[in-house]
Every structure is written in structure tokens, then in C-alpha cells.
Design goal:
eight-stranded mixed β-sheet; mainly beta; six-stranded parallel β-sheet; 190 residues
């Protein structure tokens, strides 16, 4: 009852929106999503199916979350690279889009700089500051966030004995799935 959904917002079946949240007109939220307490969804934000957004997250215009994305509590998205109070950036050309691909996880209190792409099934550690793109299955953390390895869709770490093949055949330590990672991307991990 205490959530506010503006007329013109599209909300998919089975989606739950908790207390004190606000969804603006022209926002689109898919099916089976969960938006925690105090979530803000701006105009023209696109959220896929089965997305989980924890408490105190703001999604500003230009943010796109694909299916199965998880946003931890109080993670932050931005949408303007050079904000100024005296020179408001309120035209759509000033907003820089951010894309979070299918299955990615963003940890609690992480900050995502506008204009980045977070790859599918990537994992961003809690408290990280993401200033550049994260590859598919990439595991990043820190300030600024750096690539420390790779994770499977199930969340297990990916390892490989054949690290010179292209692509690298990486195996999950949890579910034993095999995932191909381009050699040049694999070598970027610290």
C-alpha cells in the first residue's frame, strides 16, 4: 500500500514491490521480480524477468537490467558523468546508459559508474566501485574494481589447467560446468 507506481509504468505478473518504493511512468519491470523497501525506478528504466533488487537501490534513467540480475542492498547506479547542481543535466542526451547483462550479481553498497556494461553472470563484490566494463563471468571487487577471476552461472569459481588455449576451457569448482573464456580476457585477471 505504501509503494507508489505512476500511471504508465509497466509491471509484469508476479512482481512484488515493497514499502516506500517509487516506480515512475514509462519504467518497465518484467515478471517475477522483487523490489525491496525504498527502491526508486526512474523513467525509461528497463528491468527484465526474475530480477531481485534489495532495499535502498535507485535505478536512474538509462539503466537496463536483463533477466535474473541481482542487486544487493544499497548498491548505487549513476547516469551522468559530469553532474553539476548549477548546470542541471536533464536532457536525455546527457544520460549515459548502463547495461547489466543476464544473471549478473552486484554486491551490497557497490557503486556502478554510468556507461559501463556488466557482463552476463558476472559478480561484483560488495562495496566495489565499477568504473569500466566487466566481462561475462568476471569476478571483480575493490576500488576501483579489478578482475580477480571468473565465476560460473551457479556462483562457483572457474579454474583451468589449460590456460594457453583460446578460448580457455574453464571448469566450475561447484557444479563442474565447462565455460569458454577468451584467452585475452582470461589473462586480464590479477
Amino acid at each position: 500500500e505504501s509503494a507508489h507506481v505512476d500511471r504508465g509504468a509497466k509491471i509484469g505478473r508476479g512482481t512484488r514491490i515493497w514499502h516506500f518504493s517509487h516506480v515512475m511512468a514509462s519504467a518497465e519491470i518484467g515478471e517475477r521480480c522483487s523490489l525491496g523497501q525504498n527502491v526508486f525506478v526512474a523513467r525509461n528504466v528497463r528491468i527484465g524477468n526474475n530480477v531481485k533488487i534489495q532495499n535502498n537501490v535507485s535505478l536512474y534513467e538509462g539503466v537496463i537490467l536483463e533477466d535474473d540480475v541481482f542487486c544487493g542492498p544499497s548498491c548505487v547506479f549513476t547516469n551522468v558523468k559530469t553532474p553539476r547542481s548549477a548546470y542541471p543535466r536533464n536532457r536525455s542526451e546527457d544520460y549515459v546508459p548502463t547495461l547489466v547483462k543476464r544473471g549478473a550479481t552486484i554486491g551490497a553498497n557497490a557503486t556502478i559508474r554510468c556507461g559501463v556494461i556488466i557482463g552476463k553472470w558476472a559478480m561484483v563484490g560488495a562495496g566495489s566501485v565499477v568504473t569500466r566494463d566487466v566481462p561475462d563471468y568476471g569476478l571483480v571487487w575493490g576500488n576501483p574494481a579489478r578482475l580477480y577471476g571468473f565465476v560460473c552461472a551457479c556462483g562457483g569459481r572457474l579454474t583451468s589447467n589449460a590456460q594457453n588455449a583460446d578460448p580457455v576451457q574453464a571448469s566450475c569448482t561447484r557444479c563442474a560446468a565447462t565455460i569458454e573464456i577468451p584467452l585475452d580476457i582470461w589473462r586480464q585477471a590479477i
